[in-house]
Design goal:
By secondary structure, the chain is mainly α. It has 18 helices and no strands. The longest helix has 37 residues.
Length: 436
Amino acid sequence: MNAKVKSLCGYIFPAMGGLFVTYLYNVVDGIFVGQGVGSAALGAVNIAVPFITFVVAIAVMFPMGGATVVAIRMGREDKKGANQAFMTAVTLTLAVSVLLMIVGIVFSQQIVDISGASKLSDEMRKMAADYLLYYSAFSIPMLMSTCLSVFVRNDGSPTLSFIGMCVGAIANIFLDWLFIFPFGMGIIGAAVASGLGQVFSVLVLLSHFWNKKGRLKLNLIKLEITLVKKICKRGVPEAISQLTTPVTALCYNIMLASLVGDIGVSTFSVLSFIYSLANAILSGGAQGLQPLWGNSYGKKDTGEINWLFRCGITINLVLSVLVCSTLFFFDKPVICIFNSDTELVQTASKALPLFSLSFIPMALNLIYTSFLYSTKRTKQSNVIAVSRGIIIKAMAICSIPMLFGKEMIWVAPFIAETITLIIAITITKRTKLIFQ
């Protein structure tokens, strides 16, 4: 196998696997809760999703921004500067995780009410608050596992990064079963299982640094404001790109709670779990390319940068078509994995084929966003990320059912992603690659 292709596969597929496993935590919770507690509990988990994914989206800014800086500095053989960027990102992630843990615990009921729970049944509202409270208690391992997996992958151990995520997922699956079925802990058991799974993941990932397997080291540093700003600047596009999940979930929860009620929120709960896994696979392709683009940029290798871009577009396009086709033909079996309630299956099976169409333009938008911020075109990347993740997506979800009927709400993400893709292609063609 060609060395370039081998390197490409060695980063992309572990990144996809790692992100897939990360998002699998919430999905596994959804499956066990849907089968072991009921459809109301399934909707309750989804009500908590906007805050949880918002936390992850904000926190991912530090490891992704730090990883970009690390990759460029490693390309320049600046090992000391690379380690400074690494530890700065870790410190920022830890600080934010503590803050968000406190907020999630203290204001759990208020947060789920803002997310749409105030218009739902008292049962679903209470379960949503309980799930969020216990999930938030594990904010530190939850965010640190994401952070460390990025740097372990970038530090030459993509396989260990993937293994760390897998260990956490396997622990989560076993503990979900244990807490929900034998122990009867319900939705609280699902939240605790997810948190403990992340603890196992962090322990595996830390072994990379304890055993000194790479060039990055864990040590005490003094934060430099200039470097903090640089990391945040480089990480903002990825954070905004990941914000599409909580924005989508929040808008859908609010609209469906008003237009349809509990069954509408439960239906979107199933779709959002499926969406999160598709997003993980496609984001993994973009994130896996990030260190390769950073190194190529540091070496000023234009040919390699463009080759990696073409590979990313091709890989994500093929994967998105495969995912979309699978969901189109196997919609009901996939939905029944979560819950076999007749009304839920009927409603969700009509929505899923329309909803999954958005995965195709989304796959390409993720590549464009990562390509631009990895090659120091942060402003242009921000425009695409903001358009996709916040402005156009929110406008589409809120306006389309009002204009064309509530059944058309499931087409809104496809329209938003397609408009964003047109913007992304236009911006990329008009922006030259400049080495700094």
